[in-house]
Structure formats: C-alpha cells, structure tokens
Write a structure and sequence with these properties.
By secondary structure, the chain is α/β, with parallel strands linked by helices. The protein folds into 3 domains: 7-82, Winged helix-like DNA-binding domain superfamily/Winged helix DNA-binding domain (Arc Repressor Mutant, subunit A, Orthogonal Bundle), CATH 1.10.10.10; 93-166 and 270-295, D-Maltodextrin-Binding Protein, domain 2; 168-267, D-Maltodextrin-Binding Protein, domain 2 (3-Layer(aba) Sandwich). The protein contains 11 helices and 12 strands. The longest helix has 21 residues, at 62-82. It holds the Pfam family HTH_1.
Length: 298
C-alpha cells in the first residue's frame, strides 16, 4: 500500500476551516486551480466529496464534519512536533534521571548532585543504579542517562566527558600499627588485607606492583564494595586499598580511619561520565551533565 501524502492533511484542514477552495488557496499560498486539484486528490484518498456546492456556497459533507476535529488536532500535533523545543524550564521539569555509578561515586558526590537537582529542578528525580558488567551495552542501548565509570573503551558512538582523577590509597583504623613507622612496601605487604572486587577477585594491580618487588600480600577478606571495605578496615587489623575520594568521605563521616599513600607506583584512575548520542542535544540532559561535572569539581 502506498504511503498517504500527509500534505493532504494540512490542505484538508484549510478547506474545512475556510469552507471554500479560494479561501484555502489563499491560506496555503496556492492558486485556486492548484487547490482544486488538491481537493480532488483528497476526495480520492478518503472516498468522500468533502465539500459540496450548495448555491454559491461550499458546505462540508457529514463525513467532513465528523473528521474536522480530528484533522485539526492532528495538524496541531504535527506543528508542535516540528517547532523548536522551548527553553528549558527547570522549575517545572518533571523527569527521572537514571545514573549508573558505583557506590563510591554516589556517596562522595551524590549528595552534591542531589542538592542542586532539588534546588533547581524540584520536580525531577535522581535514580542511582549500580554499575554492572555490561556497561557499554547499557549506554549504547540508551537504557541509562549517564554512566559514571573509570576511563575505558565504550565504543565510537558513545559521548564521554572527564570528571576527575583519583588515586588508590591505603586505609586502616586510626590506631593501626602500620602507622608506627615508615610505610614501606615490605611493611605494607606484611599486614592482612581486604580486596574490593564486584567479581570476587582477590588479586589486582597492587599484587602486580608487589610482585615486581619480589613481595606478596595476604588477602584475608574479599568484599563487593568499597564501603564494606572501609568498615572492615575500620573495625579490624585489616588494610584496605581504595580511591582517595572514598577515604576522604569516610573520614568526613567520622569513621575512625586514616589513609596513607601506597608505597608502590599505581596508575591514576580517570573517572568519566558517558551518554548515548541521542541525549547529546537534549537541554535537560545537558543541564544534568553540568550538574554532575560541577559536583565533581570540574
């Protein structure tokens, strides 16, 4: 079946509003003969005369009268769709934003993001969702507004913006014996430790750095989140290794822990926000990205 010519819908609306071929032609900036030909096409399309001549007037048929309101609404909807988007009004914005991020981001920066969202867009909602192992697919499929993660390949079509950098530091309870002397690689490796891994791994970059020095450490506990690692270290003789902003947040919340530089070279972590291309020009999404970047000190 051949697709209908949607221009006929606009012409039909003009004919029904004006009640004459001449009036509709002037409204659409056409000649009267051109509008007469368009009316003929409309009649063929819907199988109805639409307008019939009674004396010197053209009057709509019952079918045309039944269609009038529907035709007007359809044209108005089409016009609204094709107009430029109005300026963003944050005060009335009613939208739920989904941010996929680990618990360390939500605890360290989520409060700042939420405060600004509540202040500027009080009818909007933030939903933090945990990161997972299919992050690139989640962004590519547009299932989340923002993915906040460490820098990694996410595909050529995904937009990314750098938020901040962080380093891995050691963390122990504030009276831990490791603070009684210089923290060397040997002393660092001599204490039992916590490994933080969503996948349950007991080894990682720290073990590689220790191995380069001929050292190994003992991992006595594996936990799925950095917050669990913080509390495990704060209530035991274990040492945890975690991002410096997590350590700062734990201390700011009154957890009795101290952080220290890990005495081996480790890579700096770059944290980014990433989003689907369809959000790139969305004013509300642009605002959300600025809010997140500002909360991170960007």
């Amino acid at each position: 079946m051949q697709s209908p010519d949607l221009n006929l819908l606009i012409a039909l609306d003009a004919l029904l509003e004006e009640g004459s071929v001449v009036g509709a032609a002037q409204r659409m900036h056409l000649s009267a003969p051109a509008m007469s030909r368009t009316l003929a096409r409309i009649r063929d399309a819907i199988g109805d005369p639409v307008l019939v001549k009674i004396g010197r007037r053209m009057v709509p048929t019952p079918r045309a009268l039944a269609l009038r309101d529907q035709v007007r609404a359809s044209v108005e909807n089409a016009v609204r769709l094709l107009r430029p988007e109005p300026d963003l009004d944050l005060a009335t914005l009613d939208r739920t934003f989904n941010l996929q991020a680990n618990d360390t981001f939500a605890s360290s920066f989520g409060g700042g993001v939420l405060d600004r969202v509540r202040r500027e867009a009080p009818h909007s909602v933030l939903r933090f969702e945990p990161g997972n192992d299919i992050e690139a697919h989640v962004v590519l499929e547009g299932k989340t507004d923002l993915l906040i993660t460490s820098m990694r390949p996410l595909g050529p079509d995904i937009h990314m913006q750098r938020l901040f950098t962080t380093t891995i530091v050691g963390l122990a309870r504030d009276d831990h014996p490791i603070f009684d002397g210089e923290i060397t690689p040997q002393r660092f490796a001599s204490y039992d430790q916590v490994s933080v891994s969503r996948r349950g791994r007991a080894t990682g970059p720290i073990d590689v750095a220790l191995a380069a020095l001929g050292l190994t450490r003992t991992v006595s506990l594996v936990v799925p989140s950095f917050h669990t690692g913080v509390f495990a270290a704060g209530s035991s003789d274990l040492i945890a290794a975690l991002p410096d902003h997590v350590a700062d947040t734990a201390k700011a919340l009154g957890v009795r822990v101290r952080s220290f530089p890990i005495p081996m070279p480790l890579e700096t972590i770059v944290v980014i926000q990433a989003w689907h291309p369809r959000f790139q020009s969305d004013p509300a999404h642009q605002w959300l990205r600025r809010v997140v970047r500002d909360a991170c000190g960007g």
